[in-house]
Amino acid sequence: MKASFDGMRVVAFESRRAKEIERLIAYYGGIPQVAPSMREVPLSETTQAFEFAEELFNGKIDVVILLTGVGTRTLIEIVTTKYSRDKFIESLKNTTIVARGPKPVSALRELGLKPDIIVPEPNTWREILSSLDSTLPLNNKTVVVQEYGVSNTQLLDGLRERGATVKPVAVYRWALPEDIKPLVDAIHSISSGKVEVALFTSSQQVYHLIEVARQKELEKPLREGLKRVVIGSIGPTTTETLKNFGFTVDYEPNSPKMGNFVREIARRAHYLLTRKQIAYSNGVDTGQWKRIDMIWYKDAPEKKVNNSVFIKACNREPTDYTPIWLMRQAGRFLREYRELRARVSFLELCKTPELAAEVTLMAVDRLGVDAAIIFADILLILEPLGVELEFSKGEGPRIKKPLRSTKALDTLREFNPDELDFVYKAVEISRRALAPEIALIGFAGAPFTVASYLIEGGSSRNYENTKGLMYRDPEAWHVLMDKLTHATLLYLNRQIDSGADAVQIFDSWVGCLSPEDYRDFVLPYMKKLIQGIRPGVPVIHFGTGTASLLDLMKEAGSSVIGLDWRIELDKAWKRLGYDVAIQGNLDPAVLLAPPSEIKRRAIRILDKAAGREGHIFNLGHGVLPGTPVDNVLTLVDTVHEYSSMRKKTNDQSL
Ligand code: CP3
Known about the structure:
By secondary structure, the chain is α/β, with parallel strands linked by helices. The chain contains 25 helices and 20 strands.
């Protein structure tokens, strides 16, 4: 939790800011070994580019293959230090331009040029050769290949085999340092297990490390070594380069600033190292692994959470600090989630256990929270009941045929919990891959809130149709609630059997009811539901706008009650009595405020909870999609740090 390497040995490859990263590593408790891996090359030294330009002007080049966007831009920059930009662009038009994917295409667009051939995905050397084969005979052609990083010999050989004269043009802005001894030492440290963490702050560092390893015939031991150390990458480009070389990045910060990077990796390094070493010793290929490949317990994968601060708080047992997780912690505010969603629809994501588990785990890795919540949706339960469901872009969920009449209720099918097998599978995978101290929360919508979607067809302001049915035909209402309660109970217990350590019941919209109506139309079902949950498993009962319903919610009998932000935590808890645990209750919109304000308001809530056993920090409702991830990190850190300090002082004063 504390941002400290605690004596771990950390290798970094930064050059220009070598001193700074060395200081940062030491500041966060690590032992630094910095191996500067790059030297900036003056543009005038890059003769290959000038030779290329001259031959181009003389009409000696037939084909130009552009491999990267950065390389294309750098090439132009170099050439135009000596020659006219217009002349260069005009001469390029006389060649066949091949762009390897979208990045060189956009670099060309900036010059007003269009490629003649765009290489299709996944843009490897194989696709380059096959697109040329289908369009352009290469025999006796002169082909220039713009290179960035390490030369791709397979591509160059393939072109030569087709009869081309190949001219690689390396356009590095960066070259190897004059003294490569520090790099060689770093390779030895990694391969002999003398360091535990390796930090990459640019993709060029990766190319150079590999290049030196190849030169010294140390590539194999380097690769083996990197499977056993924590790999930190400053940002997405570096991560991609590492991935292309076959290394899995263990941590990439949300914002690519060096101080932030070193601090965040220091905070997680021990955990990440343990995880990687356990995986390695379990025979997982830690060069290329996904979160869901992780197995903490090789012999007893069914073993559940142990020593979890979250579960202790649910049971009102003492903890060293206040645990925190956030409703909707796995969602659109995470870049990785949005990237995944660009490829698959929401329902597909929910129904593919490996992907749902990946998202569940991603939120914990990214945010450092104390519990994971399984990635699913409260409305999934409707499909096995025979109700068609749709999640359209931007509008939220839609029920195709809302059930508005008493008669329509008869169309609901008998619930078979097996139809939600994909959820149980996701629970199983997630539990196996989650660190043993992180709890996994299963969930379902409460019967009332699910009924409101079923009847309204989507979100609603006044719940007219729902209340309409309830008042007009109470008998039908009770039949519906009974069916939903039965289904939800089977569903939640199956999640528990698959590895959920606790469950939360979302009654998000129940606050629209009067206390009398809650007592008559909802409470009996909540009681039945909560009583039916497997004994010993904590149940969190959450709703919004429930200030006037809290006493009744307590009667329903859950171990934890979730509060929204419209009520003060201390007053609510006092009213409920201290024999129930409390979850909440920061306004999600506070996460849009500056860090100082987030801290102030988080501390105010912790002070209201007064260090009492049984508080789980959460928002009063889900994270808003526009929330900056760094603000969530500020919140998580504040809750952990302030509460642990507070508990220590409390203990001392006793
Ligand atoms: O991280 C988590 O909390 C786990 C996943 C989770 C989702 N939905 C994923 C989701 C959970 C716990 C829910 C519960 C849920 N779903 C509730 C109760 C909690 C609450 O917010 O009150 C409700 C009412 C729903 C129904 C629902 N699903 C709505 C209203 C919407 C659209 C609005 C929105 O926030 O997008 C959804 C879609 C949904 N469920 C998304 C996610 C990540 C967004 C889908 C997308 O990627 O486009």
